[in-house]
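REVIEWER CHECKLIST
Item 1: Sequence provided? yes
Item 2: Single chain? yes
Item 3: Sequence as submitted:
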Amino acid sequence: MMDIESCTELNEFPQMLPPPPGTFVDREELIQHVGDFAVSQGYVVTIKQSKRDRVVVLGCDRGGVYRNRRKPADESSAERTRRRKTGSRLTNCPFEAVGKKDDGLWILTIKNGTHNHEPIKDISEHPSARRFTEREIVLIKEMTEAGLKPRQILKRLRQNNPDLLSTPKHVYNVKAKLRQGNMTVENLRNSLQIMRNFKSLRPQKSAVRNNYLAVTEPSWRQRNPPRVPNLIGGRFVDSQSFVSIDVLNPATQQVISQVPLTTNEEFKAAVFAAKRAFPLWRNTPIATRQRIMFKFQELIHRDIDKLAMNITAEHGKTLKDAYGDVLRGLEEVEHACGLATLQMGEFVSNVSNGIDTYSIREPLGVCAGICPFDFPAMIPLWMFPLAVTCGNTFILKPSEKDPGAAVMLAELAVEAGLPNGVLNIVHGSNEIVNAICDDDDIKAISFVGPNVAGTYIYARASAKGKRIQSNVGAKNHAVVMPDASMDATLNALVAAGFGAAGQKCMALSTVIFVGGLNPWEDKLVEHAKAIKVNAGTEPDADLGPVISKQVKEQICKLIQTGVDTGAKLVLDGRNIVVLSYVLPI
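Item 4: Structure as written out by the authors:
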């Protein structure tokens, strides 16, 4: 595997990362992954060698050298050859990626990740971006036979595809090939099959990519149990890591998925993808960014049932709580949809004699979010929608205990039109957190979680000069006055204390009854006994399981510690049994 750091040391030109290695379900998915990532870095790949069922070798389109097959007859022709050679795009670029089929899957390795040329500043200027689709060439043939001129043909093609970058010259070339018999509609279908593998060489709507993925399931979905992918440069890719964490259904203890720990190379690729996407994204009008959030909001509403079911399966909370998790996060997306006015700066004229003052709001750059397990949808939605709508790019690290909802939200964000590299996802535990804190390209970090972790992250990240918001240590207390409404208060106390099985930072931990406990204790116990404990997916469940056996053991120890130190235990739920979910011995 190629070390990305060594790539940058050898390369004197601006850094262009190789695509992250990965495992893919077929050859076409591998080629599309390499092509998509290459374009995000500023280079274009071509197929150098292919044995269709075994191996494919991909190289930079600037690989190779200019070869003059003509013998110069005099000095003038030699001079023409010299000019032609110096004008060639070929630089003998050494970049090479190899995909090999092994045990039914295609494995990508990088043989040489370096380049010896400048990155393409605008991919739309590359010749590949000006290619016509198969359908467009068929239309060119039909309109040519109808007597239309190239400019008329191009005008009609642009009515169907406003993003078309081709010029009348390209229409002339296609017409010439059709006239000479070098391009027929039948041959075209065969030759353009290869071009479909490089969809990103031409600006595409996100729906096109999603249609492709719907036809060919990616390799990480094909695994059993499925592996949770990284999102790097707009592509969901399976990690090359051999170390993974099982995601368990708390109610059944079945393995739902596996979270591979993102490698250092994959993390650097994600950061670089975000860094490269930032200049174009920050210059994207705020209205355009808002439109993506409006679409994102619509897609969350569409898939809210799937999101809630995933949260319940991975976290354990009831479906009612899971829907609340998504809806609370959705409020932040709605807030992002109206962010334009909050982006406005301030201006004061003549604050002193002949002096005006003004302030402007600018995005920082690459930001990162580190999420806890208790709200798998809400907290990621606290973070990246507002950050990206402000013009930043983002690295999200979901909790390794329940990452599914964050990945689903990222898929919806990509479908909504979020450009490649604006949102990236990595997975892991301490090592990835340290990498996020230490990386010089990450300018700000948002963290939600326990005190110890928050203090550590705040100290480590701020020592690197990052902006850091560390949301830790939340506690929820209630004070009940003597004139409080009995029924309303009891319902509020039970909901606050037992909602999401108490696994939330604002869970009620202490209640102070002013005037005495006697009128309340029996009623409170009665309400607690009425709570129905079951798997979160069951329709009558009021209280689901906690996220793991280890957490349950910790809770039981805390209860016993309270009893041992003199607390009165009026209702003991430590040995409760849900018959439908008793594990066989």
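Item 5: Key structural point noted by reviewer: The CA atoms of residues 420 and 483 lie 58 Å apart.
Item 6: Recommendation: ____
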